[in-house]
Amino acid sequence: MKNLAPAVSPPGGIGDSKPAHPGVLAWVQEVACLTEPENIFWCDGSEKENAWLLEQAQRLGVVTKLSEEKKPGSYLHRSNPNDVARVEQFTLICTPTKEEAGPTNNWAAPGETYAKLHGLLAGAMRGRTLFVVPYIMGPPDSSLTKVGFEITDSIYVVLSMRIMTRMGSVAVKRLGSGAKAEWNRGVHSLLDVNPERRLICHFPQDNAIISVGSGYGGNVLLSKKCLALRIGSYLARKQGWLAEHMLILGVESPEGRKHYVAAAFPSACGKTNFAMLIPPPHFHGWKVTTIGDDIAWMQIGQDGRLYAVNPENGYFGVVPGSSYKSNPNAMKSIEHDTLYTNVALTDDGDVWWEGKDGAPPAHAIDWKGNDWTPASKEKAAHPNSRFAVPMRNNPVLDPDVEKGEGVPISAIIFGGRRSDTVPLVFGALNWTHGVFVGATMASETTAAATGAVGQVRRDPMAMLPFCGYSMGAYLQHWLEIGPRLSNPPLIFNVNWFRKDAGGKFLWPGFGDNMRVLKWIIDRCEGKGGAEETSIGYIPRPEDLDLEGLQGVSKEQLKELLSVKPEQWKTEIEGQKKFFETLQPDMPGALLAEREKVVKRFAN
Ligand code: GTP
Ligand code: SPV
Ligand code: MN
Fold first, then answer.
1. Ligand of minimum distance to the alpha carbon of 290
2. Alpha-carbon torsion (591, 597, 602, 603), positive or negative
3. From atom 26 of ligand 1, which residue's Cα is the shortest distance away?
4. Which helix (H) or strand (E) covers residue 515, if one does?
C-alpha cells in the first residue's frame, strides 16, 4: 500500500523539543509502541520549525505554494475527494453508558471502541513521522484555558494546528510538570484515508480523542470540534460554564458605547461573516470587531454577567461565496499567510472559487486537481473548501481578544437557515423562553458535513453535532445558568435566509445584518420598539433602521417579519416530535414553555 505520509528527517534543532512532563512522555511512548513510526517530531511552534515543515510539505506534494506576488506566504492543499467534510455518522461519543451520550449522539462502548481503534492503529505509522503537537485553547492567562496534545502523522494537520491554536512551548509551559495538571490526549492517524476505516471517537471521561481515516477539518484538527466543543461541553457542564458553537463580536456605537454579542448558527450558516461584518454607509461611526468566529467558552463573572473567550487562534472558514462585496474583512484576512484547502488553482498561482469577485479564470485546476474552464459542469472549488488563517490577519480583530476573563455578553443570538416560517428577527420573552428558542432551532443542512444538503433538521443551539453528552441534560444545564446570572444576556433569534415564492432570498444579508444587530443592541439598552407576538418580540418596520436599504420593498419587509399561523402549526408539531426524541432527559420547563406557545397561538 502507498504510504500517504512518508517520514521527514529534520536536522538538529528542529523537531527535538521534547517536553519534561512524565505523563506526556509516557503517553507518546505508548502511542509510538502501538503505531511504530519511523521517528518522533516534537513541535515547538516556532517560525523556524514552520518554515522547515512547509518546505517538506511542498516536497511531498501535500501543499502547493501560491504565487508570492498574488498570495504571499500562502499554500494550497487538496484533500482526498472522499474526505471533504465532517462525518457525523462516524463521530462517536464513548461514555460508559449510552444514556450519558443521549439519543442524538452515536454512542459506542469505551472498552470495545478502544480495542477496535488499537487494532486500526497497530503499525499505522510505519515509515511515517509521529508529530507531537502541544497546544492551548484559550488566551494564555485565562482560567478557562485548556491544554491539549495532538499526535498526528499528517504534516497538513501540524501546519493547520499552528494557525488554529496557540501551539508549542506556550502549552508545555502552561502544563508545567505537575502530575495533577489536566490535559487532553488526542491521537490522529490518516491510516489510508478510507471512509470505511474513518472514526472520530471521543472519550469524555478520559479527556481523550482518537481520530482515524480522515485528513480533513473538524475530523482531524482535534482542538476544534472535538476538544473545544464535544469534550468542552462535557467539562463545561461538570464545571458550571458553557462551551458553545458561537461567534463573538463587539459592536461599538458612534458615542463609544460597546456591547459584545455571541451567536450560534449551524455550520455554514453565517458565523464567520457575521463576526466580521462591515456596517452599511448610513451607520457611520458604528464599528464591529471580532473576538471569535466559531466557538465561545463562557463563564459567569463576579458581576453576574456572562463572559466569553474565543478558545481558538485562527479561523477555519468557508471559502465559496466570499468576496469583497459580501465580506471584505475576510477577503483581506486571506490575502496572505493563508492555508487554503480544496479551492481552485489559477494558472498564475492564485486561487479561485465560486462567488469570488470578478470574472472566472479562463482556465484553472479544480479542487480535485483536474483541468477546469468556465464551461466545466463541475465546481472549481468544493462547496466546503476552507481557509485557515491566523486571527491576527483580521483587520477588525477586537483588542480584547486575549483578555483572560473574556468579554461581557449583552445578547445571545440563535439562528438558522430557514426558507420559510422563521422571521428575520425576534426577541425571547425571558431566559427560559430564550433557552426554548435555542432548543427549537432548526436549519437546512449544508456542505459542512457529508450527507444531503438543504434538509431542515432540528439543531438545538447549533450543537447537535457537537454536544458531548445527552442533549436533554445540555438544555437543562442552560436552564440552570440563567438564574445564576444577576444580569443575563437577552436572547434573540435571526434568520437571514427566508425566501420569496420564487426561491430568492428576501433579505440582502451580510453588512445589512447590522440593521438587525442595531435593533438587538437597542433592546439591550432598554430602547427599541417591538410587537409582542406568540413567538416573542418582533420589531415593526418602523423599529428597524432601514435608511439606505436597497432591494427590499415594503411587502417584502412585511413578509420577512411575518409569523404565519399555518406555518407555525407545522413548526410547533415538529418541535413536539423532536422534544419526544430527547426523552428521558428532556427538561419539563421547556415542555411547559412549548405549551405556552401553543396556547398563545390558540388565543
Ligand atoms: P462554519 O465555519 O461551518 O461553522 O460556518 P459559518 O457559520 O461560519 O458560516 P459562514 O459565515 O462561513 O457562511 C457560510 C455561507 O453562508 C457562505 O457561503 C456565506 O456566503 C453565506 N452567508 C453568510 N452570511 C450570509 C447572509 O447574511 N446572507 C446570505 N444569503 N448568505 C450568507
Ligand atoms: C463546522 O462545520 O461547523 C466548521 C468546520 O466550523 S469544521 O471545523 O470542519 O467542523
Ligand atoms: Mn463551525
1. 1
2. positive
3. 509
4. helix 513-524
